[in-house]
Amino acid sequence: MRFDSYHPTINFVFFVSVICFTILFKHPVFIAISYVTGFVYSIKLNRIKGLVFNAVLIPFIAAFAFYYSQFEHFGVTNLGQTAIGNAVTLEALVFGLAIGTIIASVIMWLSCVHAVVTADKVIYLMGRIAPRLSLFISIILRMGPKIKERASKINTAQKAIGRGTKQGNVIRRVQNAVRLLSIVTTWTMENFVESSDSMRSRGYALKGRTAFSIYRFDNRDRGFVIVIFCAFTVILAGYALDQMRILYDPQIIINPVTSLSYVFYAAYASLCLLPIMLQIVGECKFKRLKKRL
User: Fold this and answer.
1) 218-248 burial string, b = 16+ CB within 10 Å, else e?
2) I want to staple 90 with a disulfide (CB 3.0 to 4.6 A). Which of 40, 77, 167, 234 is the partner?
3) Closest by alpha carbon to 3, among 145, 115, 110, 141?
């Protein structure tokens, strides 16, 4: 029951909705939910790399809040002055912190998109609308890992003759790095030409050409759509009732938290946690079946 095993349309709708909600909602509770769920899901998908990547974003949030408070001057709660005499206010600092957290949350969710939405899903989603664009995007997404792998192989081969990027003095290393970059660039251009010729020979640009797909919209996907639709309904109801509304200028004004507010918080948290819960349930089910065997 991994989330990436669901229909590509489901993946697309979920990530687009979560990222749009993350950008739209400035309420601190919703910002915190987006950040924490994106942090956890990114680590769940990318393991140690995800943890390191997310940890690097934390200083960025603080730096952005500090920068924003130094150059934006609104609010009534004075915290001090800049070197040129401009006021530093609590409202500007808090709003900068909120914006920085939103940006970090979007970046973490995009890292989840990169792990879940593969090249074949991109081709499936865009193949009927813009087949050439879908092919171009899939080639670009696939090119990054291929370039990295090819550069590693070339560098290993160059080390055997004493031309590795970490061999020799500084000037020698720079020359070796430039040589490696030249080789990788030449290989990349040749690979683009070969891919173009290959797809043309397969009739990719022919009119009326159809594409094979392994994806089928089954009952499991329909059930997920119902859950997302219910969550959307509750969240949009909260938005209509101004439960996501907050003012930072001239002072921080937030709607009182009522018992109904927790319903909207829970609905948004449930939406963001859906992929994580599905993966945990799937892993537990797999372990239970493995024990039976």
Assistant:
1) eeeeeebeeebeebeebbeebbeeebbebeb
2) 77
3) 115
Residue 36's Cβ-side half-sphere holds a number of Cα atoms within 13 Å equal to 11
Any alpha helices (H) in 25-128, and if so which ranges?
Answer: 28-71, 90-116, 119-127
C-alpha to C-alpha distance for 146 and 103, rounded to whole angstroms? 29
Taking only Cα atoms into account, the Rg of the chain, rounded to an integer number of angstroms, comes to: 25
Are 65 and 100 in contact by the 8 Å Cβ rule? The answer is yes
Identify the residue whose tokens are 């499991």: 220
> Does residue 257 come out as left (phi exceeding 0), alpha (psi in the -120 to 50 range) or beta?
beta
108 neighbors 57 (Cβ within 8 angstroms): yes
List the pLDDT tens digit at each of the 293 positions of the chain.
677 788 888 888 899 999 999 998 888 899 999 999 999 999 988 888 888 988 999 999 999 888 888 887 777 777 777 777 777 788 888 888 999 999 999 999 999 988 888 777 877 777 666 666 666 776 777 777 888 888 888 888 888 888 888 888 888 888 888 888 888 888 888 887 887 777 777 766 666 666 666 778 888 888 888 888 899 899 888 888 888 888 887 778 888 888 888 899 999 999 999 888 888 887 788 788 878 77
What lies within 8 Å, CB to CB, of 188 at 6+ separation is 143, 147
